[in-house]
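Dear H.,

Thanks for agreeing to be a second pair of eyes. The structure we're designing against is below in token form, covering all 204 positions.
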């Protein structure tokens, strides 16, 4: 298994492409300059996962959807409204929207893929439908957990109590787990327990 991170410098959003046996998964296709397509070209694309419904995480989705129309696009149903621009993020009524008809609901559980398990955790708070994906030793945390920070809870449909409860659940992951956030650099769980001011008080 290989993980490639493609950063969209304009918004500091990370797109992740996970490959195994010439098959690929995409997490948060935010990059718009063709780097996703060129990475994918020799591969068979199986699934697209969205961590949550904020548009900066799917600015590069529609060209992919046109090319890979049969590939499912997964997003927890609690965020389908946000992804459709209701309510709009940052009051931006011109944001990129996704028609919920092209989305497939995904909740906590496991998907088997290419001999691996993709474990999905529902971690609301930054948004009601935020999902965290655990694949191999990698944890794709979207805007729930960043290197030494966490996602905002003051955006539309955010909830601080939910976010605090979600953060406690990171105690289940091994310290060597590699954190791949929606923005900013990667890290490890061990490092976050030491230096992330929002995690330091959580018993793990
Ligand atoms: Zn967000």
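And this is the sequence the design step returned. I haven't edited it by hand at all.
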């Amino acid at each position: 298994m290989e993980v490639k991170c493609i950063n969209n410098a304009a918004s500091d959003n990370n797109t992740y492409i996970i490959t195994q046996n010439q098959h690929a998964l995409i997490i948060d296709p935010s990059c718009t300059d063709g780097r996703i397509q060129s990475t994918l070209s020799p591969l068979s694309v199986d699934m697209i996962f969205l961590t949550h419904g904020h548009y900066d995480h799917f600015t590069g989705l529609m060209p992919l959807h046109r090319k890979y129309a049969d590939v499912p696009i997964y997003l927890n149903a609690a965020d389908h409204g946000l992804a459709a621009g209701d309510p709009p993020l940052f009051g931006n009524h011109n944001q990129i929207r996704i028609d919920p008809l092209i989305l497939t609901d995904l909740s906590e559980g496991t998907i088997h893929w290419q001999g691996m398990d993709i474990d999905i955790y529902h971690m609301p708070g930054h948004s009601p439908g935020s999902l965290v994906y655990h694949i191999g030793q990698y944890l794709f945390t979207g805007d729930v957990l960043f290197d030494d920070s966490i996602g905002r809870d003051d955006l539309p449909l955010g909830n601080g109590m939910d976010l605090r409860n979600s953060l406690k659940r990171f105690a289940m992951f091994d310290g060597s787990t590699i954190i791949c956030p929606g923005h900013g650099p990667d890290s490890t769980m061990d490092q976050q327990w030491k230096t992330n001011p929002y995690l330091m008080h959580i018993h793990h």
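Two observations from my side: The mean pLDDT is 96. Residues 148 and 159 are 20 Å apart (CA to CA).

Warmly,
E.
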